[in-house]
Amino acid sequence: MEATLAGLRARERAATALALGALALLTLLAWSRFVGYGAHAGHSPAMHAAPWDASFLATSVAMWSVMMVAMMLPSATPMILAFTRVHCQRAASGAAAVPSALFVSGYVLVWIAWSILAALAQSALQAGDLLDPVTLRSGPLAGSVLLLAAGLFQWSPLKEACLAKCRSPLSLLLTEWREGARGALVMGLRHGAFCAGCCWALMMLMFVGGVMSLAWMGALAIYMLAEKIVPHGRLLSRASGAVLIVAAIAVAAAKLAG
Q: If 0-12 CB within 10 Å is exposed, 13-18 middle and 19+ buried, where does residue 164 land?
């Protein structure tokens, strides 16, 4: 019985990890085609219409949503696997269990909501002529403000509290557990909220490296995953915060000197 249960857990974890990886990969491929199309056609979504046009905003929200799924699902994998393991054990013992897809759906919904805010921020920056129309990269002064804000946030109590939740799946399961399908969705929403609270300022750095940059997107995704899984992740976030503050000062000083 124990061997059967262990095998079931292993298969369930492997299937969940494979599904998450496939979803992130497919999303990244879709984003690559989106970027490639913009380059081939000689334009990007930022050049379609006025920044506050409804079609422009809808395109921007879709663009940010695709990016968020590709960037954030890998960093949520430890929590999703922990949730899957618990329900696998419940199913094996005959108790009620729910699919992990409900938890993932709640998590993704949070990042779609965040994408709406990011699209509005993008529109505001473009309306102020603060972004390059093709790369969606901010100018030096706006970039230095974003770098400084992200650097300071890395040292904040909110960052520390949210990162602690993201780094401890077991703790989240114990303190946020809810039964049933609705409970799984709410747990996904709650985990997504903690994750967004941890990473929102780093996400805004997409404007610094260029929203259309796949390399910058990948670098941020890898860093945010590292914060959540490496030992002493809090020290990593503070070190990166110091680097971002120094970079902000350097960029602003170079611009003012020039």
A: middle
